[in-house]
Design goal:
It holds the Pfam family HTH_24. By secondary structure, this protein is α+β, with helices and mostly antiparallel strands. It contains five helices and four strands; from the N terminus they run H-H-H-E-H-E-E-H-E.
């Protein structure tokens, strides 16, 4: 990965729908060289995909909640069972195994607090191996980005 690859990636993070021609112009490359570099970055797994970023407030998912999850056991089978289950829950946008005072940190999007209460009672407590949860409702989203610093 060289400086030109990083430049391409910075531009693609700003606008994933940019045409190859426009990307090449912004980066000072020929369209063929630009296409080859982007193709290589995809083949090497540096670029993992493209997506549209949506406004959660307009799609009945205005409330963001972070949930600390402590499992009742810290064994490989308990971790695997929890991970398998949480992958199937659409309200959970992110799930991270963490080191520290709890096992997982979940990022959840729901419509409102009533929807979260239903999610907590119907879905979260039904997940295998959960001993304890702590909920943190987001009052203000100060910074949210998908862009990696390059």
């Amino acid at each position: 990965m060289d400086a030109m690859d990083r430049k391409l990636l910075r531009v693609l993070q700003e606008d994933g729908r940019i045409t190859n021609q426009a990307l090449a112009e912004r980066c000072g490359l020929s369209p063929a060289a630009c296409f080859d570099r982007v193709k290589r970055l995809r083949a090497n797994g540096v670029i993992t995909g493209y997506t549209a970023l949506l406004d959660p407030g307009q799609l009945d998912r205005a409330l963001m909640i972070f949930v600390e999850v402590l499992l009742d056991r810290t064994t490989d089978d308990a971790f695997a069972a929890f991970a398998e289950h949480v992958r199937r829950v659409p309200e959970v946008l992110e799930c991270h195994m963490v080191a520290g005072g709890f096992d997982y940190l979940l990022k959840v999007r729901v419509a409102d607090m009533a929807a979260y209460r239903a999610f907590l009672g119907d879905t979260l407590v039904a997940m295998p191996g959960i001993r304890e949860t702590r909920t943190y409702a987001v009052l203000e989203e100060v910074k949210a980005t998908t862009r990696l610093p390059l």
